[in-house]
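Reviewer 2 asked us to include a model.

Predict the structure of this chain.
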Amino acid sequence: QVQLVESGGGLVQAGGSLTLSCAASGRTFSSGAMGWFRQAPGQEREFVAAISWSGTYYTDSAKGRFTISRDNAKNTGYLQMNSLKPEYTAVYYCATTRVIWASMAILKDGNEYDYWGQGTQVTVSS
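Predicted model (structure tokens):
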């Protein structure tokens, strides 16, 4: 059984940084793509970033601020977030899919992912 466990969330001031981690068990990260999504209160879940063998992809608000990466040896994915803004406050989820090579159009669709973590809260204060 595949399990994803996020960590690294917390409270940070605007302009600060956080690094989220996603530890996987039951599936090798390198066998598919990994994505990060977020959901703010009262809003729909939205795509943040994804990494696959075809490259890395970011939503516009994350470009230049966030960096997605993964350590295949540790079977762990990361989302380095810099220059955080209050509007980035949300629960952040990692997810994995068996898709190996795909465009952003596919990887930004949450329906493409078959396993999700429980989420980690990120709160950015102004």
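The helical segments are 104-107. Residues 35 and 43 are 19 Å apart (CA to CA). We have added this to the supplementary material.
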